[in-house]
Design goal:
Pfam families: DUF892 (PF05974). This is YciE/YciF family protein. It comes from Chelatococcus reniformis. The chain is mostly helical and 171 residues long. The protein has one domain: Up-down Bundle (Ferritin). Helix 1 runs parallel beside helix 3, helix 1 runs antiparallel to helix 4 and helix 2 packs antiparallel against helix 5. The longest helix has 37 residues. The chain starts with a helix and ends in a 7-residue tail after the last helix.
């Protein structure tokens, strides 16, 4: 196998992994949207990011199609299931919204790293057609990670305030 074939194969695997990761993100977002009634600002960002995530999936499929490849249904199902389980794990926590926010911050930064790696491979493999699509997804993921990071103090303060006034604070 040539170096170009190795790079292409690595790129395809990375794209399939990113596709599955975005499906996991949809599962996480959907479960959290069901349980964020005390935090409309979080729900609004989750709804917005859900739309972005759907577009990211389409972009990844577009790149795979141009490579005459497809996504991995098995990876998609497996990571979607993991996303549902992860979201459900926090539902029993007294501070569910905080736990979700911490997990979301880590997840978004993982996605940022994933897209940065894919961009590096796209450049190394001369897959120029993919760089603008991957860059757009990277920018969306970075914006969401930045929003979570910058809003975590206010979210924590709101949680503490609701809790101290005997109101529902967990979600």
């Amino acid at each position: 196998m040539t170096a170009n074939q190795e790079t292409r194969n690595f790129f395809v695997v990375g794209l399939r992994d990113a596709h599955a990761l975005e499906n996991q993100a949809l599962s996480l977002i959907d479960r959290q949207l069901d349980r964020s009634e005390s935090y409309p600002e979080v729900a609004e960002m989750l709804r917005q990011h859900r739309g972005e995530t759907e577009q990211q999936i389409l972009r990844l499929r577009e790149i795979l199609t141009k490579l005459d490849e497809s996504h991995s249904g098995m990876k998609d199902v497996a990571l979607s299931f993991v996303g549902n389980v992860a979201a459900l794990a926090h539902t029993v926590a007294d501070d569910e919204i905080i736990k979700n926010s911490l997990a979301n911050f880590a997840f978004e930064n993982y996605e940022v790293a994933s897209y940065r790696s894919l961009l590096t491979v796209a450049e190394a493999g001369a897959f120029a057609f993919a760089t603008s699509l991957l860059s757009q997804s990277l920018n969306e993921e970075q914006a969401m990670a930045d929003w979570i990071g910058s809003n975590l103090p206010a979210l924590t303060t709101k949680y503490l305030s609701l809790r101290s006034h005997g109101m529902q604070a967990d979600r």
